Amino acid sequence: MSRRLGALVLVLGLAAFGCNKKKSNESVGPSPEISGLAAVPATAQVVIAADVGKLSGSPIVTRAVEQLLMRDPTLAASWQHVQESCKLDLPTQIKHVMLAIGPSEKGAATGTGPVLMIATGTIAETELSACVRTLVGKGGGTLTAKPAGGRTIYQVKDGNRLMFFAFGRADTVVLGTSEAYVTEALALGQKLADNPEMRGWLKLVDQRAPVWAVGRVDDRVGQGLVTVSQGKIAKQPLAIVATLDPTDGAKVDLGVVMPDGDVAKSLESFAKNELGLVSMAAQMKSLGKVVNQVTISTEDSVVRLRAALTMDQVNQLLSVLDEGGGPAQGSPAPQPK
Questions:
Q1: What is the pTM of this model?
Q2: C-alpha to C-alpha distance for 326 and 337, rounded to whole angstroms
Q3: How far from chain centre, in Å, is Cα 268?
Q4: Is the CB of residue 41 less than 8 Å from the CB of residue 192?
Q5: Deepest in the core among 77, 137, 139, 309, taking most CB within 10 A?
């Protein structure tokens, strides 16, 4: 994806999060649940969900956004332009954001299929479309609209690149790289919860977490794990499930779904051995205590890797990763009691 298109995608996503000033009480068509999960097609291979309200006060998220904008002037300029044009107020105007990646073309890796972004909050269609039209128009792009199934699908064109968006109901906007996949998200057909495998994997994550994810493991990645283990792991993993809470330090829960309990035990043993090697290497960077926070266990056929880091431990880790490239994120100020 070109740098210019990357900036445009960020602008569209952020614009979709906050261009309105008022709520609409009129719903069009079926009403997806507030998280947007009911708009995700059954064919999705990967789903990542974020609770914007819970993430808005996270020092880790704030730092990540600052670093992203600092390192990419094009994105920084685009973000500034969006703020000035649309008067964004993300924490109050957007409740949830969900990314869904559809099926890949035959022979391609999982995760390379069409992408959907579903944002839920107080979003007005007329104001969003006007905002995006102004934004892309100044850069030589165009915004066109056409009716489809009782809704309006908007096409944003930037050179030979396209982006589409439409409203599932008055407070839910669906953006995507494929018009067909956006249309599928808006339709009444099979959704993610109708997929038996995905339905089972969704039960393995806490959907109340600030960030959660479920994804099918690509066959090549799974086979690579089997190969690296030199036969210690007989079967490849089926899926990855994860939650992240960065609101006070970082709490991570990563699950690897295996075909059965026996192979899960094999993966647990292999992972613990590898963690021991990582721990020894971490001592050289004074990160031994951080690595020691990681625990590995097996629950039925799921291997769980968990870690709960304090803000000070997160700062220590980030300082090493930054390699002196910038100051570590300071701990949040104590809250008055």
A1: 0.80
A2: 32
A3: 26
A4: yes
A5: 309
**Tell me, what's the pLDDT at 85?**
66
Helix (H) or strand (E) holding 81: helix 73-86
pLDDT tens per residue, range 103-119: 888 777 767 889 999 98
Q: Are 22 and 87 in contact (CB under 8 A)?
A: no
Q: Count of alpha carbons within 13 Å of 189, Cβ hemisphere only?
A: 11
- Contact yes or no for 184/190 (Cβ under 8 A): no
CB atoms within 10 A of CB 263: 19
Nearest by Cα to 8 from 116, 96, 16: 16
CA-CA distance, 48 to 43, in Å (whole number)? 15
The answer to whether 131 and 19 have CB atoms below 8 angstroms apart is: yes
Could you give phi then psi for residue 83, rounded to 5 degrees? Answer: -60, -45
Coil, strand, or helix at residue 269? helix
Backbone angles phi and psi of 154, in degrees to 5: -100, 135
Q: Which residue has the higher pLDDT, 126 or 225?
A: 225
CB-CB contact of 175 with 165 (8 Å): yes
What residues contact 66, with CB distance under 8 A and at least 6 apart? Answer: none
Sign of the CA dihedral with 74 first, then 78, 84, and 85 last: positive
135 vs 119: CA distance, rounded Å: 19
Helix (H, G, I), strand (E, B) or coil at 223: helix
- How far apart CA 161 and CA 9 sit, in angstroms, is 10
Q: What is the number of H-type helices and E-type strands within the chain? A: 12, 12
- The helix/strand/coil state of 202 is helix
